[in-house]
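User: Could you write out the 3D structure of this protein bound to shikimate-3-phosphate? I've included everything you need below.
Assistant: Certainly. Input first, then the structure.
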Amino acid sequence: MSSAGLPSELSFGGVRPLRGRLRVPGDKSISHRAVMFAALARGRCRVEHLATGEDVAATRRAFARLGVRSNDIVGGLVVTGAGFDGLREPDDVLDCGNSGTTTRLLTGILAGQSFVSILTGDASLRARPMRRIVEPLRRMGAAIDGRDDGNQAPLVVRGRALQAIVHESQVASAQVKSCVLLAGLQADGATIVTEPVRSRDHTERMLGAFGAPIRVDGLTVVVERGGWDAFDLVVPADPSSAAFFAVGAAITPGSDLVIEDVALNPTRIGFVEVLRRMGAAIEVREREVRAGEPVGEIHVRHAPLTATTIAGAEVPAVIDEIPALAVAAAFAEGVTEIHDAAELTVKESNRIGTIHQELTQLGVGCEPLADGLVIRGGAPRASKLKSHGDHRIAMAVAIAANAIDGESAVRGWRAVGSSYPEFHEHLALVTGA
Ligand code: S3P
């Protein structure tokens, strides 16, 4: 599904509880990696329940341009990987759309190839910082150019034989970590990446489960040159998508919702702990481990919420869920503070600014900080809301609108196409709308 068939505006008519069971689309981070790691594996891989949005479609198109053979199956694909040697020079620019993960991980892969590639994307992507990956890749020997001395796409990557490096990342970023590790898997020597606080660790878990030469020691990851075996994977559902429904159920009276088969990786479900602290009735039941990832269900019922503080080492585990958690804070009693989250300013929109604007529009007291927000919970009122071209802002304000008496609307709805084009259908399913 793409954003082409989506309405440009979504309307809401009052409070509707979220009830029943729901399986949201496959996790976006795991889906990107599943497509990439299948393309680079030795042999035929089957990947099912892939994320349905445009971001992962951009990764799939990029690998098709790089000469990787794949066939679509219902909800996924079969890919025949041929290792790092199986890629060929793309005959056109690789369009990564709105997807930072596609751009940054792919640049790490292409840095070690023996050909030239050019990566670009939409206006939001072209404004996002790339020095954080270009600097370590240049130190490994890659030749990369781009606007602002390589800080902004379009990026021109002239792949080279790479040397291992020790990289101490200044930001807790899974995209930076994964980029350097994917280059390191093609380099001479042992590449060592350390991060200040643990970011999502899907690359380490998945590659480890598939047999790649990778090991983790605390906040440090080490890789050596090498490949991995073919694999089959049913991608677990996306906890970041689940978070909108979890917050929706927590704030909407009468709700009782089970979200099924969700990735429960601890670096991704910080929002569960935050909601629990706020007084939400939320339970997590782990069912199995798949490709190194714990998977299970999340059960949420409505309960009154109280304010909390989100800061420090917890932030990377909730970074994509802050738009949803800000909505929870808007409905909670008391003053919620979010600190140490300056990374929000370089996401698909400047989320400190866009959350501030939308909560203000809802009549909620909200103060933007350089590294976070202060939110005075109250009684949000029906309003005309906007996505600002950011999928997560669109879904966050939609779950707010669904919990408010009166008529609201969300403009710029097509932005949800990046990660969750069927969100409005799923919301209608669980609200009986
Ligand atoms: C992602 C990592 C995070 C996250 C993004 C997806 C990934 O970004 O915000 O939505 O799949 O590696 P950073 O690594 O830049 O923090």
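DSSP finds 14 helices and 23 strands in the chain.
User: Perfect, thank you.
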